[in-house]
Design a protein that fits this description.
single chain, 10 strands, Rossmann fold, alpha/beta, 5-stranded parallel beta sheet, disordered C terminus, 2 domains, 3-stranded parallel beta sheet
Length: 279
């Protein structure tokens, strides 16, 4: 199984939904699972998909884009986070307050350039109540950046490692993220991203504003940030229409297209998995 299928514990979430045994590693998927929201064909720009392989995408819109890029074997399965929300209903007594803020981040191969102090200053001027700044591990392990948010009075957290190069995979990444989102009334970011859609599906109000920052070696084949702001303009404001935003989140995450456990096992190639078998 390609390493990206394990990112954020995605394969573990889907194996749990399919009621498979709890091995160290889930069985191999027969294809490539979309591991983050994007405006392209579902796969990372540097990922070479074996011709003819299945790609498991989150939404019908993404499936159409994948088809246009030559992926004739694209299957809409929905986002793993949507399956997790379906498996873990929100406790009736859940108390929400404040805002969780996700600054746009890079990853192991791309770095971000921008003014974090100015960004958190704008967030503090807009948001009411306590603020949690959730940093990606790159920024969290950079004291210079982390201290900017601490000095601004934010609670600073990190969801952990998504995994990379078959190492540091956190099978509970999404469960921890869901629990954090459900502690907050709002989720905001300076770029539209998976975390914003997740927050909406988890019951938060959402908004995107502030300096979008720059990312090194940006892939602009599908239009980049300018296209995102045009196509999802309703998300870009200090306050957004929650009903409109929530409907968009359900569409982008495929929350109304989730497969049954039997269907998902068929799509992923898990129909013949035996107890204790793993990849």
């Amino acid at each position: 199984m390609h390493q990206a299928n394990y990112y954020y514990g995605h394969a573990h979430v889907l194996a749990r939904y399919c009621a498979l045994p709890e091995p160290l590693h889930p069985p191999k998927m027969r294809g490539y699972l979309q591991h983050g929201w994007n405006i392209g064909d579902s796969q990372a720009a540097d990922l070479r998909v074996v011709h003819g392989s299945r790609v498991f995408v989150w939404s019908e819109q993404t499936r159409r884009r994948a088809w246009s890029q030559g992926h004739r074997n694209a299957v809409v399965t929905g986002a793993p986070f949507a399956y997790l929300v379906a498996m873990e209903p929100e406790p009736p007594a859940q108390r929400r307050e404040g805002t969780i803020f996700y600054p746009f981040h890079g990853w192991e191969g791309q770095r971000i350039t921008g003014d974090h102090a100015r960004l958190i200053a704008e967030v503090r001027s807009v948001e009411s109540g306590p603020i949690t700044a959730c940093l990606y591990w790159n920024e969290f392990r950079t004291p210079r950046i982390r201290r900017v948010y601490e000095r601004a009075g934010a609670r600073v957290i990190c969801h952990g490692f998504r995994g990379h190069g078959w190492r540091d995979h956190n099978r509970d990444f999404l469960s921890g993220q869901l629990a954090e989102l459900r502690r907050h009334r709002r989720v905001v970011s300076n770029r539209l991203s998976s975390a914003v859609w997740y927050g909406l599906l988890a019951g938060c109000e959402a908004a995107v504003y502030g300096d979008p920052m720059l990312i090194g070696k940006a892939d602009l084949r599908f239009g980049g940030e300018p296209r995102i702001q045009r196509q999802w303009a309703d998300m870009y404001a200090h306050r957004t229409d929650h009903a409109v935003a929530y409907a968009m989140a359900r569409a982008e995450l495929g929350a109304d297209l989730l497969a049954s456990p039997a269907e998902l096992r068929y799509h992923l190639g898990w129909t013949d998995v035996q107890d204790g078998e793993h990849g």
